[in-house]
């Protein structure tokens, strides 16, 4: 299971990349990685090393601190991600099976749409 801090940092990477009008493929070429690796970083599935974080900062023309939500307060950011996950899980559990199935189909469709637009 991805670490909440890795998810928060990856989410900021995606946010900054999108604000710059770059696709995952664009950024991957800038830093010498595959777009799949960028995808894993942005989703928090892989931890970004300090060296790669510095490369991202230089490519995106931001300070390294920009990747850390709440001015670097990672514990608070991790708590926010965890809170959001709990809220999502609670809402999902309160649904009937048909609604859960529909919800999952929507989430998978959105994830697929995000993946296809980032190529």
Automatic annotation (TrEMBL):
Top-level taxon of the source organism: Bacteria
GO cellular component, as recorded: cytosol
* Example GO molecular function: DNA-binding transcription factor activity
Q: Which SUPFAM superfamilies match?
A: lambda repressor-like DNA-binding domains
Q: Which residues form the HTH cro/C1-type domain?
A: 13-67
Pfam annotation, one family: HTH_3
Under the heading InterPro entries, the entry gives: Cro/C1-type_HTH, Lambda_DNA-bd_dom_sf, TransReg_Diox_bact_type
Keywords assigned: DNA-binding
Family annotation (PANTHER family): HTH-TYPE TRANSCRIPTIONAL REGULATOR, METHYLPHOSPHONATE SYNTHASE
Q: What is this protein called?
A: Transcriptional regulator
